[in-house]
């Protein structure tokens, strides 16, 4: 390798190291780009009705804040009340788990119980975890302050990106060779269309799942239906993994009333997930890129392990963008052209 190539390789390695060190900030910027992309689509729709861009941006931001504030104003009082009830019910849940484990021990033969010895102290561990969480309130509060600061930074970045998207887009495109910039612009358009379609579909799915879950849990008489339904709707943002996790709290709470309710909750959530995967998602996700289930699960696991909560939260947008770039750049522009050039050389 020549000296210039070594310098370029070293610069690339240093750049990747710096990006890795500030990965949380990079992910926060990516999240802001995703939200700004969606809001910019709304702004452009308003501009079609001859509304000036500045006014359209202001209206969009006000509507977004009004939806967020209105949602929490309507649901927060009941949510706080049910959270307090949940904290009060946690010791009862722990006790019921102990009783359930004792019953399992009396029913299952001893040789089989040896294989489940690791679960023997699960209820005690749960009680210890609850005590620690309640005892470390100030630590949790401090972390909450950090989350609030990150959220403020996220919204500020979103507004700044929304104020003049073409300028930031041009700066990004200038980082590529001149002959390839038009192609980069086309790829960015495809990323934008896919992200907007996915966000629209996901929001609709979250709302539908939350409403259906609330109705089902209320009919079954499961405690705290509102908070469990809200959790089911929010976790819908994380495909495959989120809906599976959302079933745990209502099942544990159902055990307080009767074991059959826990079974009924499992059946209810399985039915909701089947409705989501077979009816809801195919109907509302017409503009979403085609994501194979295996890739979505791997994306959630890999990005969560690499980047923590932000990686878990942004796994699917990251997968969508990565898939488009790999398909357009690596497959179409490199591998396909390499194959065509190779055939042309053989012909001549």
Describe how the helices and strands are arranged:
Blueprint: H1 3-21, H2 23-47, H3 53-107, H4 110-113, H5 122-135, H6 137-163, H7 165-173, H8 181-220, H9 225-235, H10 241-246, H11 248-257, H12 259-284, H13 293-313, H14 315-347
Helix pairs in contact: 2-3, 2-6, 2-8, 3-5, 3-11, 8-9, 8-12, 8-14, 11-12, 13-14
Describe this structure in words.
With 348 residues, this protein is mostly helical. It has a domain at 8-88 and 128-174. Helices cover 86% and strands 0% of the residues. The protein has helices at residues 3-21, 23-47, 53-107, 110-113, 122-135, 137-163, 165-173, 181-220, 225-235, 241-246, 248-257, 259-284, 293-313, 315-347. Helix 2 (23-47) crosses helix 8 (181-220) and helix 13 (293-313) crosses helix 14 (315-347). Mean pLDDT is 77; it is low at 133-141.
- Stretches where pLDDT is under 50 for at least 5 consecutive residues are 133-141
- SS element count, helices: 14
DSSP, total strands? 0
Described by strand count, sense and barrel closure, the largest sheet is:
none
Beta fraction: under 5%
Brief characterization of the structure:
By secondary structure, the chain is an all-alpha fold. Helix content is 86%, strand content 0%.
List its traits.
348 residues, mainly alpha
């Amino acid at each position: 390798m020549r000296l210039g190539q070594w310098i370029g390789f070293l610069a690339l390695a240093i750049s990747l190291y710096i990006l890795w060190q500030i990965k949380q900030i990079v992910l926060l910027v990516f999240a802001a780009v995703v939200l700004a992309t969606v809001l910019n689509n709304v702004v452009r729709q308003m501009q079609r009705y001859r509304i000036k861009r500045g006014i359209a941006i202001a209206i969009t931001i006000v509507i977004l804040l009004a939806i967020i504030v209105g949602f929490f104003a309507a649901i927060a009082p009941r949510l706080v009340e049910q959270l307090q009830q949940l904290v009060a019910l946690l010791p009862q849940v722990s006790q019921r788990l102990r009783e359930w484990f004792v019953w399992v021990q009396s029913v299952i033969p001893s040789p089989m119980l040896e294989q489940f010895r690791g679960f023997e102290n699960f209820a005690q561990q749960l009680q210890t975890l609850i005590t620690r969480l309640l005892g470390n309130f100030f630590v949790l509060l401090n972390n909450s302050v950090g989350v609030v600061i990150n959220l403020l930074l996220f919204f500020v970045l979103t507004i700044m990106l929304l104020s003049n998207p073409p300028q930031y887009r041009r700066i990004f495109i200038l980082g590529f060779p001149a002959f390839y910039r038009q192609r980069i612009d086309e790829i960015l358009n495809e990323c934008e269309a896919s992200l907007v379609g996915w966000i629209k579909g996901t929001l609709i799915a979250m709302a539908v799942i939350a409403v259906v879950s609330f109705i089902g849990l209320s009919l079954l008489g499961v405690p705290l239906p509102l908070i469990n339904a809200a959790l089911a709707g929010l976790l819908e943002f994380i495909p495959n993994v989120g809906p599976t996790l959302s079933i745990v709290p209502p099942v544990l709470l159902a055990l307080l009333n009767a074991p059959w309710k826990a079974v009924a909750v499992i059946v209810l959530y399985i039915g909701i997930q089947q409705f989501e995967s077979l009816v809801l998602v195919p109907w509302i996700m017409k503009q979403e890129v085609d994501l194979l289930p295996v890739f979505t699960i791997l994306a959630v696991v890999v990005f969560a392990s690499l980047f923590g909560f932000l990686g878990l939260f942004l796994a699917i947008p990251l997968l969508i963008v990565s898939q488009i770039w790999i398909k357009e750049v690596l497959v179409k522009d490199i591998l396909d052209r390499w194959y065509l050039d190779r055939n042309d050389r053989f012909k001549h």
